Amino acid sequence: xxxxxxxxxxxxxxxxxxxxxxxxxxxxxxxxxxxxxxxxxxxxxxxxxxxxxxxxxxxxxxxxxxxxxxxxxxxxxxxxxxxxxxxxxxxxxxxxxxxxxxxxxxxxxxxxxxxxxxxxxxxxxxxxxxxxxxxxxxxxxxxxxxxxxxxxxxxxxxxxxxxxxxxxxxxxxxxxxxxxxxxxxxxxxxxxxxxxxxxxxxxxxxxxxxxxxxxxxxxxxxxxxxxxxxxxxxxxxxxxxxxxxxxxxxxxx
Amino acid sequence: xxxxxxxxxxxxxxxxxxxxxxxxxxxxxxxxxxxxxxxxxxxxxxxxxxxxxxxxxxxxxxxxxxxxxxxxxxxxxxxxxxxxxxxxxxxxxxxxxxxxxxxxxxxxxxxxxxxxxxxxxxxxxxxxxxxxxxxxxxxxxxxxxxxxxxxxxxxxxxxxxxxxxxxxxxxxxxxxxxxxxxxxxxxxxxxxxxxxxxxxxxxxxxxxxxxxxxxxxxxxxxxxxxxxxxxxxxxxxxxxxxxxxxxxxxxxx
Amino acid sequence: xxxxxxxxxxxxxxxxxxxxxxxxxxxxxxxxxxxxxxxxxxxxxxxxxxxxxxxxxxxxxxxxxxxxxxxxxxxxxxxxxxxxxxxxxxxxxxxxxxxxxxxxxxxxxxxxxxxxxxxxxxxxxxxxxxxxxxxxxxxxxxxxxxxxxxxxxxxxxxxxxxxxxxxxxxxxxxxxxxxxxxxxxxxxxxxxxxxxxxxxxxxxxxxxxxxxxxxxxxxxxxxxxxxxxxxxxxxxxxxxxxxxxxxxxxxxxxxxxxxxxxxxxxxxxxxxxxxxxxxxxxxxxxxxxxxxxxxxxxxxxxx
Amino acid sequence: xxxxxxxxxxxxxxxxxxxxxxxxxxxxxxxxxxxxxxxxxxxxxxxxxxxxxxxxxxxxxxxxxxxxxxxxxxxxxxxxxxxxxxxxxxxxxxxxxxxxxxxxxxxxxxxxxxxxxxxxxxxxxxxxxxxxxxxxxxxxxxxxxxxxxxxxxxxxxxxxxxxxxxxxxxxxxxxxxxxxxxxxxxxxxxxxxxxxxxxxxxxxxxxxxxxxxxxxxxxxxxxxxxxxxxxxxxxxxxxxxxxxxxxxxxxxxxxxxxxxxxxxxxxxxxxxxxxxxxxxxxxxxxxxxxxxxxxxxxxxxxx
Lengths: 253, 253, 303, 303
Ligand SMILES: Cc1cc2nc3c(=O)[nH]c(=O)nc-3n(C[C@H](O)[C@H](O)[C@H](O)COP(=O)(O)OP(=O)(O)OC[C@H]3O[C@@H](n4cnc5c(N)ncnc54)[C@H](O)[C@@H]3O)c2cc1C
Ligand SMILES: Cc1cc2nc3c(=O)[nH]c(=O)nc-3n(C[C@H](O)[C@H](O)[C@H](O)COP(=O)(O)OP(=O)(O)OC[C@H]3O[C@@H](n4cnc5c(N)ncnc54)[C@H](O)[C@@H]3O)c2cc1C
Ligand SMILES: Cc1cc2nc3c(=O)[nH]c(=O)nc-3n(C[C@H](O)[C@H](O)[C@H](O)COP(=O)(O)O)c2cc1C
Ligand SMILES: Cc1cc2nc3c(=O)[nH]c(=O)nc-3n(C[C@H](O)[C@H](O)[C@H](O)COP(=O)(O)O)c2cc1C
Ligand code: FES
Ligand code: FES
Known about the structure:
- The complex is a heterotetramer, with 2 copies of chain A and 2 copies of chain C.
- Chain A is α/β, with parallel strands linked by helices.
- Chain A has helices spanning 70-76, 110-122, 142-147, 167-177, 189-202, 240-248, and strands at 7-19, 22-27, 38-43, 47-57, 60-66, 83-90, 101-106, 128-133, 151-156, 163-164, 182-186, 206-209, 225-226, 229-230, 237-239.
- Chain A has 2 domains: 8-90, Translation factors (Elongation Factor Tu (Ef-tu), domain 3); 101-248, 3-Layer(aba) Sandwich (Rossmann fold).
- Chain A has 6 helices and 15 strands.
- Chain C has a single domain, classed as TIM Barrel (Alpha-Beta Barrel), CATH 3.20.20.
- In chain C, helix 3 (105-117) links the parallel strand 7 and strand 8 (122-126).
- Classes of the chains: A alpha/beta, C alpha/beta.
- The complex binds flavin-adenine dinucleotide (FAD) (2 copies), flavin mononucleotide (2 copies) and FE2/S2 (inorganic) cluster (2 copies).
- One FE2/S2 (inorganic) cluster binds next to loops of chain A.
């Protein structure tokens, strides 16, 4: 089990719309976490859902939520002062590594990568970040990455901003031009599949954050299983090499 | 709650007949205890009974049991290597005090007083001990008290050894002749009643170990209640002044 | 903020919603008074029968890391002696509830009448002790006997009648409804869960009676569920019990639907002072959460 | 000293008496295999029904300091899909038991037949899930339905039939006897206790389904008692479950009368490696206490 304080009923301290229907929310609990770890947030009468920790400060912890359905809608509707119940952090976080890391985020996938960028920046790594989205107003947390000193490039599927194409395509181009010693990514499955392939082909070590339906979050129900691994316990961060293996055995995606 | 390690299944290391149908038994558990505290010893299929801790060493704890019925008979019949289950220590122990303490034991009452004598001896108190019994072969632990440097006097109801009379009578005589600044006693109820009276009359502070039927030993069942005190939790050691008060309210004995 | 934790239970005022549970130190008048001194709003006596009874052989308790087991077997001095003991409470301002056990309606009624005469504010029927032959849960898990016994008692005394229910059943609501039909003024849920412990190194059950009752923290989720279910089905008040150790535990029971709560096992650690502590914690909770009356908490988890 | 922890259960050899309990990670062939790799003597699948089922809304678990609550509500991919999953176990030497749930004898039988075809060594009937409408304990607390369903299954399959019993009853022995009459080859005791939790600061039941099942340490004394009672009354083997976390816990269940044990909640902390750990502890106990065969421990607490 991860070192976690169990259940916390936390008060919402801040809320900011960082993209179209996407909110950065800070709450007043202090969680010891590793970038990539997640919490389970309970929206009474609706659902309890996993959210990566996206930022934190000395007296708060934060998440960034993209509204996609009922529970995220409810979470996106909390106001300052409201209370939410949080448990965790759960799972295995990223292993910060490399002097020239490349971070690739698809959509809300930027959330777990942001605290990693902060950690890497602290290690004086020269970070390059690719932030992709379908369209300009869905780009998430780009300023936050730049503020950390990451060379940040943008991609949009519709070309409304930055590179015209997917984050995975921009990643392939970038890896072709520059040298990296690690790749970290989070985003939709097809993106991860492509990046796994890019990393393997170029011999670059890396990790990805993987999403699966979560129920218990504590490694007991099996709902998040990929083969014999549990995303909530053994993940959500997996080595790209391991994902490649699972993929070639048809055990994932 | 006292600081106790819960349940211990202990092996009997030594057994010695110290008087008629009275055995000193050492077992291989190490208990942190105060003189006067007791343990509950389970004799499967028979009973679980309270026993004062009467001695101890770096690698053992010991009791001294007088056979009076079925459970003590079973306890007195254990052999070296047998196992007994012990829980505790429970209760409040003696407060060692005084430069010239008087210890008065009636019969098996010597058991809880022996570790007290050891503690007082360690404090360089000048100890006087009165060990009484009905008859010579029921005298318990007299050598042990002498070995600790206590001036030990003996009484027997039938005069078969030492003072002819009860321990309480010898106590009254002794207090009449010598100065004491504390009295500790354990033994049958009438003995304690008399000593309470002696101590009050002579203005000597003191404590007694009191016996009551014990079931839980942990202050929940009420079986050992004296007024609103529980012998297992608030005792078995009580100040003589408190016993005097209870006695005058007809709340004890 | 001013908060009030006073409650009214069947028309009687209790200074707070906490009660000493039956069987925990409720053996003498002085101990009952010490619970009141410790802060209990009401006290329930040890369950009393017609005749003195030794109870089961020791070991009668087994401590477990999340609760405890007991198989005391209803030791008690019998009603004749206990009546005398209770007479010491005469004139004292104390809300005391006489707990009784028996094997049929007439025994229960007779004991209830004696408790009423001894000054009890209410009588609690132990229909739920899980480790006594022909008594407690053995009769209390059948709705029909619960109704018959409750009715027999209700028609014999003027004081309120409380039926204490067993969780060792597939349907505690059926038991609660039977008590209500029989005329109970309230129910208590829960008594202990039927359970046992084994000492592996001695190869023996760790209780003299083999089977005992589990109480304390371990049973809180079961107690909460029983109170919650009963609240949905009954009109009479419910008194919650099972693993209550803190004000927050008590609040949870109140939100599940309890009008008052009983505390038993937790006394082992903290003594009678636990009542004042629990009450202070309830008040703290009410202040920080903005509740004025403790009754406002009742049933909140059902909204 | 050489000790053997091999057991024979209805004529089948198990390398040790530990099993993965139903519903804990038994959702994929790979996870079942990882339990075997972790040291389990046998594995029970998640309970499977006829149709895919999402189960209850989250929160589906609540961690409690002495156990946990779950109200997963039998989420499962349905037998059609699960049969394919199980086909991956073909050829592997693995003692796996297919757990099934349904609403009547014919549903149970149909599922059991499918499990048999999929290669299950035995079928386990979930007559005991405490939080699914019209399923599990709702039918499993009536001895008559237990008998009828067991009988329907027993007459449809060749493989051994195991009835998993609920502790949410006043009389588990009646349920065990009904299963035995119906032709069960073994029983499992216990499934979870009907329970709930409340989040006081949000004034809400802490599980999506409100009511859930309590498992883990808290229920061990109840599980031991059920196994002990069943052992006195039944001729068929009993498989113990409830709060087993260590070899000593397992030994206690064996002494109460279990022929094998299941481990569920404890996996949360230690992962599948817990099986090897428990087995090593059982062996240590046997060595230090002088037992040669693990079967020698069975029922010792009854002497
Ligand atoms: C480890 C992890 C970290 C995540 N971090 C973030 C984050 O930082 N920010 C963010 O906006 N989203 C994050 N998500 C995704 C987020 O949990 C889902 O968007 C949310 O659960 C959808 O709920 P809904 O009711 O709004 O949508 P629904 O209408 O229920 O579903 C929309 C989509 O979300 C999926 N989903 C629903 N419930 C769950 C669940 N319990 N677990 C996983 N997926 C689910 C559905 O399969 C569907 O694809 C994360 C998911 C995982 C597994
Ligand atoms: C705090 C305390 C410390 C004690 N220390 C010692 C000691 O160091 N050495 C020693 O030999 N004896 C000691 N005793 C007394 C001892 O516990 C009893 O002699 C023993 O319980 C008798 O059991 P039995 O079955 O042999 O006798 P029984 O035939 O059961 O009874 C004989 C007498 O012992 C009393 N008794 C029985 N059971 C209990 C019980 N559970 N609690 C208290 N009294 C009981 C009976 O009331 C009766 O007076 C102590 C008692 C207490 C309360
Ligand atoms: C040592 C002990 C003795 C008990 N004796 C009785 C009793 O005599 N009558 C009764 O109705 N309940 C009795 N109970 C049950 C308690 O009153 C209470 O219902 C139960 O223990 C659950 O509450 P708790 O977890 O706070 O202890 C007893 C419980 C314990 C632990
Ligand atoms: C998360 C979870 C899911 C469960 N799912 C099932 C199930 O599908 N079928 C079943 O028969 N029992 C199920 N159970 C009950 C367990 O198999 C077991 O009987 C119970 O938890 C007691 O054992 P434990 O204390 O070791 O967990 C489940 C238990 C838990 C904790
Ligand atoms: S969500 Fe339950 S095992 Fe991962
Ligand atoms: S022996 Fe139970 S309270 Fe003292």
